[in-house]
Fold:
Amino acid sequence: MNPELIPVVDEHDVLIENRPRKEVHRLGLRHRAVHILVFNDLGQLFLQKRALTKDINAGLWDTSAAGHVDAGESYDACAHRETIEELGVCVSATLRYLCKISAKPETGMEFVQVYRCQHNGPFILEATEIDDGQWFNTADISQRVANDDSSLTDTFKTLWLKFQKLAHA
Structure:
């Protein structure tokens, strides 16, 4: 089986080389990811509970959909692919770029491009990636993030704080 190759990048998000995913994580190298926030018509956010079989952040609540940008793939293409793979829905009509977060320890050394979209479900959750998914009120999420809730991934907490600043700007 061929390893999943992902781009290793420098501090400016410029491609250095492609390396196997497990190696990139083991060595703590900078790489690329997308996170997608899916809101429903009530303004609630869908969060996924990462599968217990995941090698990183197993069993923790995270953004609606997320994933590594593959070798040769753009951030935008990855965001479209991840919503289809993880949630079983195409959100291209409402998907829009929000912001980019620099690679740092809180993001697992990932440059994270964040997107938002609108969808009411239902979703077909990818069982190898996601154990559960639920809609949450944004005020409850903000409170959990403010309390540094350990059931949320550090990346999600980091990007939620950035999202709140953008929403109030």
Summary: The first strand starts at residue 5 and ends at 9. The chain has one domain: 5-167. The domain at 5-167 is CATH 3.90.79.10 (Nucleoside Triphosphate Pyrophosphohydrolase).
